[in-house]
Amino acid sequence: MKKLLAVCGFIIIFFVLTVPSTMAQCAMCRGSVESSMGNGRNNVGVGLNTGIVYLFMMPYILVAVIGYMWYRSSKKNQQERQFVTARVQQALHQK
Q: What sign does the dihedral 12-13-16-18 (CA atoms) show?
């Protein structure tokens, strides 16, 4: 569990440190799309939309992976608790 928290912390720190550099590109992208739309070309806009969808998928995948790991961990803990409870019940009934 500590390893998972360390990895999550590293990922969060990485994203926090890289956000300012990615936010700086927004004006450049907007200018590029506006100039290409003014010339009658739509290829740049389609490419940017595809890139945006691609970038938005990463947080969802990250949440899904963390959710799956959490589910697997809780399922494992639940099985261990059931095993211990069954052993205690068995020990109490034998006496």
A: negative
Question: Two tokens at 71?
Answer: 């589910």
Cα–Cα separations (whole angstroms), residue 24 to 18, 21, 36, 67: 11, 5, 20, 32
User: Which of the two residues, 54 and 84, has the higher pLDDT score?
Assistant: 84
Which tokens go with 38?
């003014």
Rounded to whole angstroms, the Cα distance separating 70 from 78 reads 12
Phi, psi of 41, deg, nearest 5:
-100, 140
pLDDT of residue 70: 94
CB-CB contact of 32 with 44 (8 Å): yes
What pLDDT digit, counting tens, does each position of 12-40 carry?
787 767 665 555 556 666 677 667 666 66
